[in-house]
Amino acid sequence: MIGVLLAQCVTVSGQQICGPAKQFNGTAIQTPADVVNQVMPFAYGLSLVILLFVFIWGGFDLILSRGAPEKIKTAKAKITSGIIGVILLAVAYLIVQVASRIFGLGTEIF
Fold this sequence. Notes:
Elements: H1 2-7, E1 9-12, E2 15-18, H2 32-63, H3 69-102
Antiparallel strand pairs: 1-2
């Protein structure tokens, strides 16, 4: 409940009180959708960095496996998880973009 109140402006006794959050263009965040629109680019960027580290981790495990079948299997599973993560991230982004255009929500989503 508090998060919703901080994300919206409220008029009390004729005075408008807005939460401390501001968008990058300087306007106040009015709705929870504005909060999501501000957070998602960072979330996508952070998840891509995490996926990069998953690939690197899987690659190191593959190099350091020394031919042990169980370690190779574990390393391949990490790399496969990274590939699946990238695909899911891209599909989720595309679904949101397509849905925003279909429903006429504009191009300012993420």
